[in-house]
Design brief:
single chain, alpha+beta, 16 helices, 33% helix, binds (2R)-2-hydroxypentanedioic acid, binds zinc ion
Length: 457
């Protein structure tokens, strides 16, 4: 690494070699994966990203782009001594266009900052998830992040109206006009979204906003089984037009959250499964939710309208991730199942795990409306991949996807073939080769190691 050359581009203060700051950028959020880097380079503009990449390309220096480092598949951890390209200084918030309901923002803007910016104009950015205070727009575009509102508004890709990105050799592609009809060739925004930093570095995104509906209600629904939870959500989708979230937690996870954060259980009984539902609209939603739930034989419900109480109900679901991390670095298996197979999978997975890891504990929760379960496993060594293997194979055998919303990163690349055919993976390689022939951009994520080619040391 030529530190002086990088300092000439971004300024000496923004080539960070301080051991503590490097340590924070070289471990994933869970603490499961640790790497190393010679430096964090922190560009302050697209032009600086371009110059840094042109330099790295010329020198054959591999780069790992990083935003809030909240990813859960170690896609932003330099595990082979790559340079970290920290994009958080690209935090420009463009003017909101109220006619098109769009805004252009820098890659380093956090989701929380984008939410606040949109709210000031009576609008909302539809993608939201627990890591909102640190996760960046660039990272969420690079991973096509999902979150809690996918069942109504879709994943990040659906919000994208344009993109600005820097190619591996430093050239900039910018297509930010946000025209709804623009049928002029390949959809680069769609391609780069979900490419996990392997094809280009996202520097800005033009995103769609939705009206910020004033009436919101959140409910918890206790039910007797995961199978019942699936049926409840299917009915709610029919009966509640404004349904904006349908999440699942189980009794043991809820109990863990209550014990970890010293909270009272939200319902009077310990129901085997609890569904969290949210509805948003112009008309009051509590009654719509209550009527729909009355029409079904559910065990117990708690509905909240007042913002603090709504947040409290959400915290029982969102704090699963934090509570599980107190037990040691978990294995995180974010998967989708076809809805008819979901309950049987949820019942089978603990036994399948215990067969190969008798001391392991399995925690299941997730975005039920999307068929997306977060299978978390604790009590297993960080580098032991046997559990990951049996769970991902079970998912594939049930017709599911090995990554619902977190991406492939470095942790799942060896199982990509369970969800993608050889021909698809060949096409992925051809795209990678065309856009990044020197393999400078995040070379150790997403694509499996090529046959006959060992992983880099
Ligand atoms: C969530 O839905 C996130 O809360 C994190 O996707 C999931 O911790 C996890 O496994
Ligand atoms: Zn999730």
């Amino acid at each position: 690494m030529d530190r002086a050359a990088l300092a000439r581009i971004v300024g000496a203060d923004h080539v960070v070699v301080d051991p503590e700051r490097r340590a924070a950028a070289t471990v994933d959020w869970t603490g499961r994966v640790r790497g190393a880097t010679p430096a964090l380079v922190r560009p302050g503009s697209t032009a600086e990203v371009s110059a840094v990449l042109a330099h790295c390309h010329a020198e054959g220096l591999a780069v790992v782009p990083q935003g809030g480092n909240t990813g859960l598949v170690a896609g932003a951890v330099p595990q082979h001594g790559e340079l970290v390209l920290d994009l958080r200084r690209l935090d420009h918030l463009g003017p909101v266009d109220p006619l098109a309901r769009q805004v252009t923002v820098g890659a380093g803007v956090t989701l929380a900052a984008l939410h606040a910016h949109a709210a000031a104009h009576g609008l909302r950015y539809a993608v939201d998830f627990g890591a909102r205070d640190e996760a960046t727009v660039g990272g969420s575009v690079a991973t096509n992040a999902g979150g809690v509102h996918v069942l109504r508004w879709g994943t990040t890709r659906r919000q994208l109206a344009g993109i600005e990105a820097v190619l591996a050799d430093g050239r900039v592609v910018s297509h930010l006009a946000g025209l709804d009809k623009d049928n002029t060739g390949y959809d680069l925004a769609g391609l780069l979204c979900g490419s996990e930093g392997t094809l280009a570095v996202v520097t800005a995104a033009r995103v769609r906003l939705v009206p910020d509906e004033p009436e919101v209600a959140v409910g918890l629904v206790g039910v007797s089984s995961v199978a019942d939870a699936v049926v409840v959500v299917a009915h709610l989708r029919e009966l509640v037009p404004g349904l904006s979230a349908a999440e699942l937690v189980l009794a043991d996870g809820l109990d863990l959250v209550c014990r970890t954060f010293d909270r009272r259980p939200p319902l009077s009984a310990a129901w085997p499964a609890v569904v969290l539902v949210e509805a948003r609209g112009r008309e009051p939603q509590a009654e719509v939710l209550a009527d729909a739930l009355d029409a079904m034989a559910v065990g117990e419900t708690a509905v909240a309208v007042e913002p603090a109480r709504r947040a409290e109900l959400w915290s029982y679901r969102e704090d699963h991730t934090l509570a599980i991390n107190t037990l040691g670095p978990p294995h995180k298996l974010d998967v989708t199942l076809p809805l008819p197979a979901l309950a049987e999978f949820a019942a089978a997975v603990p036994d399948v795990v215990r067969e190969v890891a008798p001391d392991a504990e399995v925690w299941l929760f997730g975005h039920l409306g999307d068929g997306n379960l977060h299978v978390n496993v604790t009590g297993v060594a960080s580098d032991d991949e046997v559990v990951d293997d049996v769970v991902l194979r079970l998912v594939a055998a049930r017709g599911g996807s090995i990554s619902a919303e977190h991406g492939i990163g470095s942790l799942k690349r060896r199982w990509l073939h369970l969800s993608r055919s050889d021909v698809e993976i060949d096409a992925f390689r051809a795209i990678k080769q065309a856009l990044d022939p020197r393999s400078v951009l995040n070379p150790n994520v997403l694509l499996p190691t090529a046959p006959g080619r060992p992983a880099p040391a």
